[in-house]
Amino acid sequence: MIDAKTPLGPNVKKLMIERAAQLQVEATKKRYGKAGVGETAALLVETNGEVIRTTMREAFAWTRDALEAVRRSPGSEKWPTDEDVAAEILRGIEARRK
User: Fold this and answer.
1) What pLDDT does 34 receive?
2) Which among 5, 8, 6 has a CA at the least distance from the CA of 85?
3) Of 50, 46, 59, 48, whose CA–CA distance to 13 is shortest?
4) What are φ and ψ of residue 81, in 5° steps?
5) Which of 57, 70, 74, 69 lies closest to 16, judged by CA?
6) Contact 90/19 with Cβ under 8 angstroms?
7) Rg of the chain in Å (alpha carbons)
C-alpha cells in the first residue's frame, strides 16, 4: 500500500499523474467553460501553487484508494505489487483511448 513515505514506482507515478491531469481538465472546464480542453492546456492554465498541491493530494488519495480496492478484490493475486496493479489500470486507460 502506498503512503506519503513510500517511494513510488514509475507506474504508480504515471497513474497518479493521469488522475491529476483528469482532475485538472475537469476543474478547468468547470471554471472556464471550455469544451475540449486537453490535459496540457489545463495543466498550463493553472499556476496557483495551492490549487496544484490540492489537485496532487486528491490524485494521490485516488491512486491509493484505487490500488487498495484492487487489492481487496477477488483475483487480485494476479498483480502482486502496487506497480503491477498500476500497470494494469494504465493498460485499461490506454485501451479506452484507442
Assistant:
1) 64
2) 8
3) 59
4) -125, 165
5) 57
6) no
7) 15
Tell me the whole-structure pTM to 2 decimals: 0.77
Q: What is the pLDDT of residue 94?
A: 92
- C-beta neighbour count of 39 within 10 angstroms: 15
Q: Are 73 and 51 in contact (CB under 8 A)?
A: no
The alpha-helical segments, DSSP class H, found in 1-98 are 10-32, 39-45, 49-72, 82-97
Q: In the 8-state DSSP scheme, what is residue 25?
A: H
CA distance 20 to 87: 17
Instruction: Return the pLDDT at 24.
Output: 80
Block residue for cell numbers 480542453? 37
Per-10-residue mean pLDDT for the chain, 98 residues long?
Answer: 74 93 79 62 64 88 93 88 93 90
| CA atoms of 75 and 73, how far apart (whole Å) | 6
